[in-house]
């Protein structure tokens, strides 16, 4: 039986493909006076308000005009235990990890602290319009349990995993190859595919895992091919050099993961900045996914992500905040900084492609475009309501905006959590309507 229906009215924008330019209207549908019919956590219909209103005579109508209704944002790389690390004065990656991140993550051995931080973490995601994220938990099983339990309480489609790390970290942050394997198996059994939860096998990065642990991670991937895999790759020159010392037999950084059978189409590789030609060949062959993290790459001075170069090889790039080296939970601000990173390389990020990237594009990278990332009938009702006039500066600029692309670029450049008028997760509002 279908429960009470809701009809959300607004300017509806949904992508069906990646736009190839400003004139590629075949890649998206924009309905100026549109509506979404929602019930039981699903989108039942999308169309003009005039067409859907007669079909939904008993539905509660929520009028969001003139705001834009879009699929909820998807963040493909961030760190749950770093909610109190964000905005820690930065240096380079390895020093930043040792000075700030690792000490903070030791606190997540405590179940109460993990649960408290999970509440804050999910509040921050939804207040910024993010409805799905792929997160690293700490090494502690309690951290992953708090993360997935809070996601289930809110009925959010979330992906995550306990990190595997058995060296080059403080004692309170180390597991062993066997305990990491056993804990991960238990977490997969408890959370993967349960409700909207999905698991990511998570060797943090090559520096913090011994060959024995990498072998165990490879065994987990082989035993659970439907799980995601997430790690870091080639973020920083010192990181790359240290990895080469630890794995002298590897042809390059990516080969550490490749040699243990971790590269699959479900693998997400955070950063992937300083890549060698062989590594790019391997990414193209295996269909593993690099993840562009612009705000953290700028914050730590790590380097510039070559989006166009990788795309030219047929590689699917995801994009993410990378909280807490990343400096904003906002996927809008992530697009803002991503635009600038690409500008420095004479690459362009048109606003239509930008908004495709943080919705359907990231869903494609996750293989979930049939469930999230669009507003098509039969998909999950994760929806964000965007106010292009949320601030004085935006209101003034909007007075001179004449096209959808111009409006989206205002959101992309000036928008943040103030532009999120409402976020719906499985059809339920996450904060009071503005």
TrEMBL record:
InterPro entries, alphabetized = Amidohydro-rel, Guanine_deaminase, Metal-dep_hydrolase_composite, Metal_Hydrolase, Metallo-dep_hydrolases
* Cofactor remark: Binds 1 zinc ion per subunit.
Q: Which domain of life is it from?
A: Bacteria
- CDD domains documented for this protein: GDEase
Q: Which UniProt keywords apply?
A: Hydrolase, Metal-binding, Plasmid, Zinc
Pathways involved: Purine metabolism; guanine degradation; xanthine from guanine: step 1/1
Q: Which GO terms describe its molecular function?
A: guanine deaminase activity
Please give the catalytic activity noted in the UniProt record. Answer: guanine + H2O + H(+) = xanthine + NH4(+)
Q: Where is the Amidohydrolase-related domain?
A: 68-429
Q: Where is the signal peptide?
A: none
What's the cofactor?
Answer: Zn(2+)
* Pfam families membership: Amidohydro_1
> Its Enzyme Commission number?
3.5.4.3
* PANTHER family named in the record: GUANINE DEAMINASE
What does it do?
Answer: Catalyzes the hydrolytic deamination of guanine, producing xanthine and ammonia.
Q: Which family is annotated?
A: Belongs to the metallo-dependent hydrolases superfamily. ATZ/TRZ family.
This protein is called Guanine deaminase
UniProt source species: Leisingera caerulea (Phaeobacter caeruleus)
Give the organism's phylogenetic lineage. Answer: Bacteria, Pseudomonadati, Pseudomonadota, Alphaproteobacteria, Rhodobacterales
**Gene name as annotated:** guaD
């Amino acid at each position: 039986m279908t429960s009470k229906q809701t009809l959300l009215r607004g300017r509806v924008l949904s992508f069906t493909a990646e736009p190839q330019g400003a004139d590629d209207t075949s890649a998206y549908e924009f309905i100026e006076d549109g509506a979404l019919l929602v019930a039981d956590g699903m989108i039942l219909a999308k169309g003009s308000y005039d067409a859907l209103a007669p079909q939904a005579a008993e539905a509660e109508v929520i009028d969001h005009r003139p705001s834009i209704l879009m699929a909820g944002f998807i963040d493909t790389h961030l760190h749950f235990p770093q909610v109190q690390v964000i905005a820690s004065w930065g240096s380079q990656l390895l020093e930043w990890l040792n000075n700030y991140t690792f000490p903070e993550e030791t606190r997540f051995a405590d179940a109460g602290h993990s649960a408290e931080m999970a509440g804050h973490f999910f509040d921050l995601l939804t207040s910024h319009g993010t409805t799905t994220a792929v997160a690293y938990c700490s090494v502690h099983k309690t951290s992953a349990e708090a993360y997935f339990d809070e996601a289930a309480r809110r009925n959010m489609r979330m992906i995550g995993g306990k990190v595997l790390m058995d060296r080059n970290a403080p004692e309170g942050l180390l597991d062993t190859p066997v305990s990491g394997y056993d804990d991960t198996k238990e977490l997969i059994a408890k959370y993967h595919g349960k409700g909207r939860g999905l698991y990511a096998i998570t060797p943090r990065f090559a520096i913090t895992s011994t060959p024995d642990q990498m072998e165990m991670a490879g065994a987990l991937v082989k035993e659970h091919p439907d799980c995601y895999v997430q790690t870091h790759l080639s973020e920083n020159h010192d990181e790359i050099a240290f990895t080469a010392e630890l794995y002298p037999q590897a042809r390059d950084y990516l080969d550490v993961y490749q040699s243990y059978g971790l590269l699959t189409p479900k693998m997400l590789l955070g950063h992937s900045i300083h890549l060698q030609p062989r590594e790019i060949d391997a990414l193209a062959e295996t269909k593993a996914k690099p993840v562009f993290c612009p705000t953290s790459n700028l914050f730590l001075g790590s380097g510039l992500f070559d989006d166009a170069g990788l795309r030219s090889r047929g590689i699917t790039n995801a994009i993410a905040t990378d909280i807490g080296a990343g400096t904003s939970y906002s996927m809008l601000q992530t697009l803002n900084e991503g635009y600038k990173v690409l500008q420095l390389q004479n690459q362009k990020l048109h606003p239509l492609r930008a908004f495709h990237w943080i919705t359907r594009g990231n869903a494609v990278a996750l293989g979930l475009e049939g469930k999230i990332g669009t507003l098509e009938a039969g998909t999950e009702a994760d929806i964000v309501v965007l106010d292009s006039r949320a601030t004085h500066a935006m209101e003034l600029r909007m007075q001179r905006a004449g096209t959808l692309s111009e409006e989206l670029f205002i959101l992309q450049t000036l928008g943040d959590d103030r532009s999120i008028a409402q976020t719906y997760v499985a059809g339920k509002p996450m904060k009071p309507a503005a």
